[in-house]
Design a protein that fits this description.
single chain, alpha+beta, three-stranded antiparallel sheet, 7 helices, about 45% helix
């Protein structure tokens, strides 16, 4: 960063040099994160780095994925609004309606963010651990991978 700033400064000074002033008078280095010079800059910086600012303003989108699993073909539809999963639809002949509903319920409302979906699918898998379907872990893992 320092080398880039120094190169930009040198180029700026060489192209704007005023013969009547010395370089030290032309240039003042400031810290853009200095609260005393720029009140509120740290708050704005935190806001602009937040998930809500970066992804929460995302337009609506839909993700559809299909895969062939040992329990049969599976299709997943995720409709997202402002970066959050608003609607979920799972179609798989190898899942019971209860199993599909549990997975859908755990996904709805989650941020479309890999760690959030992985956590939701881990909860769904634990919820369904007594299911007669031995492939629920595989299903939940595959869904968690859909956001990569």
């Amino acid at each position: 960063h320092t080398q880039v700033a120094d190169a930009i400064t040198a180029e700026f000074l060489s192209s704007t040099r005023d013969a009547t002033r010395e370089d030290s008078q032309c240039l003042t280095t400031v810290d853009p994160m200095d609260e005393s010079l720029f009140p509120g800059v740290l708050e704005k910086s935190c806001l602009l780095e937040s998930w809500e600012w970066t992804f929460g303003k995302t337009p609506s989108f839909t993700v559809t994925r299909q895969v062939e699993l040992p329990i049969g073909a599976m299709q997943l539809h995720l409709h997202c609004v402002h970066g959050k999963i608003a609607a979920v639809s799972i179609n798989c002949s190898g899942l019971s309606q209860t199993e599909s509903s549990v997975v859908e319920k755990h996904l709805a409302g989650q941020r479309f963010w890999q760690s959030d979906i992985q956590e939701a699918m881990a909860l769904a898998a634990r919820h369904l651990q007594n299911s007669r379907n031995d492939n629920m872990g595989l299903v939940c893992n595959w869904i968690a991978q859909c956001v990569i």
